[in-house]
Amino acid sequence: MSTRVTKPSNQSAGVTKPANQRTGVTKPANQIAGVPKPANQNAGKMKTAIQKNAYAPVKIDPDSDYMTPGAFELEQLFRTVGGAEYTHVNEVWPRVFIGDEKTALERPQLEAMGMTHILNVAEGKWNNVATGARFYRGMNVRYYGIEAEDMPTFNLAEFFYPAADFMHQALNHPESRLLVHCVMGRSRSATLVLAYLMIHERLSVVDAITHVRHRRCVLPNRGFIKQLRALDITLQQERHSQRIRATDTQQKSVRDRGRERGRRMI
């Protein structure tokens, strides 16, 4: 059971097409519903956020003390917070593990750990982890592969929502255990786990980094850090708008009840 996203060989460096338009995208009939989503559904918001000054803090909610830090500040956070030593694999969230190539290639260890889902963020043969769904045949593992390059110019943000949804749906089953890996388990895989925590667990980028860094020595490249910052801005905007709409709806409901009581008194 697998989902694979590949990168066309003639694609320009750092420029990616939406996943639903790329050659080599397969969707098995028994794939979890909703994975992957069209990757361009949030492209406009993400592009706007990325175009902002990446090194200046951004405040979205005037009633909140929180500000999305600049990219340099986030990079310093990665380098200073937490004290976890580098190991091959760590549990960074309940039933979510970040690991490296060695972990992904050791089938007996994966079976002993009870892994049911594997997200390979370094699929491919060149300088990547060439496993694929066939490698795990007979293990009752659901596999999702992404050909991502650990380069600042690579648009990993295109896969934030599809990967986060794969992880979220996997964790809906209480017996599931998920390995997210790349080659070293420090940059590509860590970035997608952080995006998942921000999207589905509603953590800020600061809280997500702090949480994971206390459990694993991760350090995404600068381009990925900027993309996580842009995601944080987008999510803060969306959630601020949701709070405003919820407040307006609540106030309208109070006014309507007041009018109804007034009519009854007349």
Automatic annotation (TrEMBL):
Its main location: cytoplasm. Signal peptide: none annotated. PROSITE patterns: TYR_PHOSPHATASE_1, TYR_PHOSPHATASE_2, TYR_PHOSPHATASE_DUAL. InterPro entries: Atypical_DUSP_subfamA, Dual-sp_phosphatase_cat-dom, Prot-tyrosine_phosphatase-like, Tyr_Pase_AS, Tyr_Pase_dom, TYR_PHOSPHATASE_DUAL_dom. Its EC number is 3.1.3.16, 3.1.3.48. The keyword Nucleus applies. SUPFAM superfamilies: (Phosphotyrosine protein) phosphatases II. It comes from Clupea harengus. Residues 158-216 form the Tyrosine specific protein phosphatases domain. Residues 1-43, 242-266 are annotated as: Disordered. Residues 88-237 form the Tyrosine-protein phosphatase domain. It catalyses: O-phospho-L-tyrosyl-[protein] + H2O = L-tyrosyl-[protein] + phosphate; O-phospho-L-threonyl-[protein] + H2O = L-threonyl-[protein] + phosphate; O-phospho-L-seryl-[protein] + H2O = L-seryl-[protein] + phosphate. It is found in: Cytoplasm; Nucleus. Transmembrane segments: none annotated. This is Dual specificity phosphatase 29. Belongs to the protein-tyrosine phosphatase family. Non-receptor class dual specificity subfamily. The lineage of its organism: Eukaryota, Metazoa, Chordata, Craniata, Vertebrata.
